[in-house]
């Protein structure tokens, strides 16, 4: 049973990201403020939920959350500021856009760059412990998956429709065969040779 809040004195938002370990595409993050008594039996860390259930949960979260926002940082900025900073920046951008101002943040993981003067608590595996972080993980994951499906239309050889940019065997094989696309993260070890894809 997921806990709804870490504390109850301040308006609390849960934050999580998706796509940190990918070789291509942006990193997405979400911030979610939930009402008291929020509950869905399938809600959990997005990695523990089937794709079909993730989209069912997304609709439920978007309908029932007090407010939520999703933001992303693209591959070029990831290369420029590194993936950890890009993940924090995406969370900050999502928090920025919330209609209701969060006064306390709970963050999935063990590190976070402080957002303005808002107090925060990092929670390792927080997406399996707190409903708002789990909800943020569902939103970040589904929005990112949708984005990678769109990129798949442009570069179908890399099978982003299934691997979503993660370094699967099929993805790495496609990089060896076809080179890097403009969406690959150059700062990541995509291949031993870092082949460039020639664009006409």
Automatic annotation (TrEMBL):
One of its GO terms (biological process) is DNA replication, removal of RNA primer. It is found in: Cytoplasm. It catalyses: Endonucleolytic cleavage to 5'-phosphomonoester. Endonuclease that specifically degrades the RNA of RNA-DNA hybrids. Manganese or magnesium. Binds 1 divalent metal ion per monomer in the absence of substrate. May bind a second metal ion after substrate binding. The gene is rnhB. It is an enzyme of class 3 (hydrolase). This is Ribonuclease HII. It comes from Niastella caeni. Pfam families: RNase_HII. GO terms for cellular component: cytoplasm; ribonuclease H2 complex. One of its GO terms (molecular function) is RNA binding.
